[in-house]
Amino acid sequence: MNRALPLLLLLAGCGPLVEIGGNTPRPAALYTLSAAPPEAVPAGVQPIDLSKAITIDTPTLPGALQTVRIPVTVSDTSIQYVRDAQWAEQPNRLFQRLLADMLVHSGVAVIDQRSSGQSAQQRLTGQLTAFGVDARGSPQVRVRFDATLSGPDGIRQRRFEREAPVGDVAGAPVAEALNGAANRVAADVAAWVRSAG
Prior knowledge:
The chain contains four helices and seven strands, in the order H-E-E-E-E-H-H-E-E-E-H. With 197 residues, the chain is of the alpha/beta class. Strands 1, 2, 3, 4, 5, 6 and 7 form a seven-stranded mixed beta sheet that branches. The longest helix is centred in the last third of the chain and has 26 residues.
């Protein structure tokens, strides 16, 4: 038996020796989303109706969004990414938590199936189809969520979309504009879920 073979097998089990993209410098900051309570909901403790509780699945993503980088659409067939800017994690997970926070602020109980092992009668699923910058013309951020709400009364579907101008296509202003647009989409979704109940 070749003496080098066990060493090669041991090295192969350690994973790749070179990581693609591993030598790129880390960004100065990682961005996230934060929820602002909807203005239409009065401040204070809201009554919770557990019969109208909801479980929120992590939204699916198209390929261009399956990254922590922030995409910039520069033409109908070309996407770039904001230089030196990254989300703390993929945008679908950030958006899922934002939706949960917004629904809780709106008085809707949200059941986390992973931590509780329980599932609510209502389930919110969907696809986050846009979450970045559109630089075709005046730069603006766009958040689009195709939602599906299923429950005892059947299945409802609706598209939610918000846009906002952004002056500089750089990490901080883009992240701030996306946070604002995502909050408005989440507030629209929360209002829709409450009206469906």
